[in-house]
Write a structure and sequence with these properties.
- The structure holds two protein chains of two kinds.
- Chain A is built from four helices and 15 strands.
- Chain A is α+β, with helices and mostly antiparallel strands.
- Chain A folds into two domains: 106 residues, Immunoglobulin-like (Sandwich); 147 residues, C8orf32 fold, CATH 3.10.620.30.
- Chain B is α+β, with helices and mostly antiparallel strands.
- Chain B is 32% helix and 27% strand.
- In chain B, helix 2 crosses helix 13.
- The chains are: A alpha+beta, B alpha+beta.
- At the A-B interface, strand 1, strand 3 and strand 4 of A face helix 4 and strand 8 of B.
């Protein structure tokens, strides 16, 4: 077990004043079989009304609106999380994660990859998923900036490159083609300056984390924030405002062992 | 009745002046077209309507049971009545609604059920519209104008007055209102049904608003009235689709929605009519299962008849589709408004092969139905009586009780060779008279 201290800081600057800035931040790590939240502190400026909610997947979030005009918006979330207390997470509702979404729907590249593997039937879901993960390490290169949150796994497989989001969605595609429920996870990991994404695989009645970007099982270095069917279900921060401003957003994440 | 027909062009002129138009946005161009009114009414006698009323009430009650169940306990899936993929792969299924209970257990407040009558007199349900069914305002305003044009027609016949729709709608909103004013939320004047939004707001004493008029503060929904006062909203009859309702929970790029409205709803501080997520119950694939829902939730035999429907998802139905391709109609479950409807016998050889390949590749995406030879209805065209295909949209309002509006929107195809009556495809409409005896 390890205790991790994390810090998520988002700063948006606008070149002119904006109003009625509504936001939703899915940055509240849940208590699961694998992690336990020891402390959490959320700071938002400028002054806003703030509330908390939970989405249909069970993910918690903070939301509110900064009504008054402002040119800078800062969200600062800090906390400490005990991780690695278990290997897997129990749960229910896994039938939802059998289904491909537009972001994971297999196209010719996914079909070629899946059929090319020629994985014989049998074996537990986790082992099969690990084979898919290994195959993806060959099929995809880590290249930032070539995809965005609306890109599909097929796009990434076709261009043979992407970021953690694309590695994860491609793994979901292959698992679901194989009949294995698999879901998208957004979170944080030690040693990276940004948020991260990985997959959870339903195997033997529990959810196991696999990180296809790094090609490994999820361990005590990972803090989970939320899960869903694909990247679009796990947008960590949403915002809309009034005003014809240009926004410049900076996000920094740090996760350190205590 | 003869008198009304004489007045038809005058009535159409008045309808145009009132703004009874259909806006259509197609190929990047916005066009407004009149929604042509035909003065010959569809007449349904008392006994026949009593049957329809009973059947429609039962159907909508079961659909509301389904919507309550599917986002919470999912008994109907667990008990194997509906395969899970028909629920979870439906584009109308919204996981955001998981665990959300609609106020007072009503999810489909205003249901628009489309029916056709076959030549043997049997009524068939074509589809259930449980999201934002439009159309009630058209026979409503037409009735008013017809009564003015020819009062004696209505004096001499036992026609049930249909002008109570606004009261029914108002009662439906009041029943779920969480405290505050009723508003009708429109995407704006470029929407196809903008006339209806403004007309119903006026008649129900609701405030007509667009997304930018509404705002959320501390988990309550408000608007600013003409005097600059902040007023709380208790019920939103929204005429925008789920995906655009709230950029914080649904499509983040929506600019016509209200940020946080869905959270206010989940906290029970405002009612939304119809409830978000209803698309899972009016999906063309789920339609197949409605008679099974009636049996499952109510323990009754389904009174209404579905058109004979086949799901290529089931191997025996796939075989039927392949064998009878020229006699059936194929519908893409993801489409609406008469789009994505293909008649097997109207395809060329190449088109047919493409269609079959598509069905085999994505069987869940399509349903097939026998083509019902439905009754033609007379319309006046250039002073002559001609017959055309027509359907009926019945409106069922669910509040404290379930009420079927004693009228409905009869739509007809102006093209003599077409079975498709949707207004977005250029059809016209008629009033629907229900006789009191």
């Amino acid at each position: 077990m390890s205790e991790l201290a994390f810090e998520y800081r988002m700063r948006s600057e606008f070149d002119r004043e904006i109003f009625a800035h509504a936001f939703r931040l899915m940055l509240l790590p849940p208590d699961t079989g694998r992690q336990k939240v020891l402390g959490l502190d959320v700071d938002i400026s400028p002054k806003s009304w703030v509330s908390r909610g939970r989405d249909g997947f069970g993910n918690g979030y903070v939301y509110g609106t900064a009504t008054e005009g402002h040119r800078a918006f800062i969200a600062h979330v800090r906390g400490r999380v005990l991780t690695g207390s278990g290997e897997a997470e129990s749960g229910a509702g896994q039938e939802l994660y059998f289904i491909q979404t537009p972001a994971t729907a297999p196209g010719p590249c996914a079909v070629r990859l899946y059929e090319g593997l020629g994985l014989p039937d049998g074996g537990d879901a986790l082992t099969r998923a690990e084979r898919f993960m290994a195959a993806l390490r060959q099929a995809l290169r880590y290249v930032p900036g070539v995809t965005d949150t609306t890109s599909s796994s097929e796009t990434a497989l076709r261009q043979r490159s992407g970021v953690c989001q694309d590695f994860t969605q491609a793994l979901l595609t292959l698992c679901r083609m194989d009949g294995i429920p698999a879901r998208y996870v957004a979170g944080m990991v030690t040693g990276e300056g940004q948020t991260h994404a990985w997959a959870e695989i339903w195997s033997g009645g529990r959810w196991y984390g696999l990180d296809p970007t790094w090609g490994r099982r999820v361990n005590g270095d990972y803090i989970k924030l939320c899960h869903g069917r694909d990247c679009r279900d796990c947008l960590l921060n949403r915002g809309v405002y009034s005003g014809p401003a240009v926004e410049n957003q900076m996000i920094t994440v740090s996760v350190k062992k205590v | 009745m003869h008198d009304i027909c004489k007045e038809a062009s005058a009535i159409n002129e008045q309808l145009a002046r009132y703004g009874v138009k259909f806006g259509i946005y197609k190929n990047g161009e916005f066009r407004e077209q009149l929604f042509p009114f035909d003065a010959i009414p569809r007449v349904i006698d008392a006994e026949e309507f009593e049957y329809l009323e009973k059947g429609l009430k039962q159907r909508v009650t079961a659909l509301n049971c389904f919507l309550r169940d599917i986002y919470t306990d999912k008994r109907i899936v667990k008990d194997g009545v509906i395969p899970p993929e028909f629920v979870y792969a439906s584009s109308g299924y919204l996981p955001q609604c998981e665990g959300v209970r609609a106020p007072k257990g009503v999810a489909s407040h205003i249901s628009g059920i489309d029916l056709v009558q076959a030549k043997d007199g049997t009524w068939y349900i074509l589809e259930d519209n449980l999201r934002v069914p439009s159309g009630a305002s058209y026979p409503l305003i037409a009735r008013g104008l017809c009564r003015r044009a020819s009062p004696e027609t209505f004096r001499e016949r036992r026609i049930v007055d249909n002008r109570d729709y606004a009261q029914l709608l108002r009662r439906t909103m009041d029943f779920v209102n969480a405290g505050g004013d009723n508003v009708i939320l429109t995407p704006g004047r470029y929407n196809a049904a903008f006339f209806e939004h403004s007309y119903l707001a006026e008649l129900t004493d609701s405030v007509l608003v667009t997304g930018s008029d509404l705002f959320v503060e501390n988990d309550f929904l408000y608007y600013t009235d003409m005097g600059g006062q902040k007023r709380r909203v208790g019920a939103v009859y929204r005429r925008i689709s789920d995906e655009y309702l709230d950029p914080m929970s649904f499509l983040p790029e929506s600019v016509i929605g209200v940020p946080h409205i869905f959270d206010v709803y989940k906290k029970g501080n405002v009612a939304i009519l119809n409830a978000p997520g209803n698309g899972v119950a009016d999906d063309k694939g789920i339609y197949y299962f409605v008679p099974k829902m009636v049996k499952y939730y109510l323990g009754e035999e389904c009174i209404t008849h579905n058109a004979p429907t086949y799901l290529p998802y089931y191997p025996e139905d796939m075989k039927y589709v392949l064998d009878k391709f020229d006699e059936i109609v194929i519908k893409d479950v993801a489409e609406a408004g008469g789009y994505g409807v293909v008649f097997g016998n109207k395809l060329t050889k190449a088109q047919k092969a493409d269609m079959l390949a598509l069905i085999k590749a994505q069987p869940r995406r399509f349903i097939a139905q026998d083509v019902i030879d439905f009754i033609d209805i007379d319309i006046m065209e250039n002073g002559k009586r001609v017959s055309r295909k027509a359907d009926l949209r019945a409106f069922v309002l669910t509040g404290e009780d379930v009420t079927v509006w004693k009228s409905g929107l009869t739509r007809f195809s102006r093209d003599p060779d077409s079975f498709i009556v949707n207004s977005s495809q250029g059809g016209g409409f008629k009033d629907t008279w229900v006789l009191s005896r």
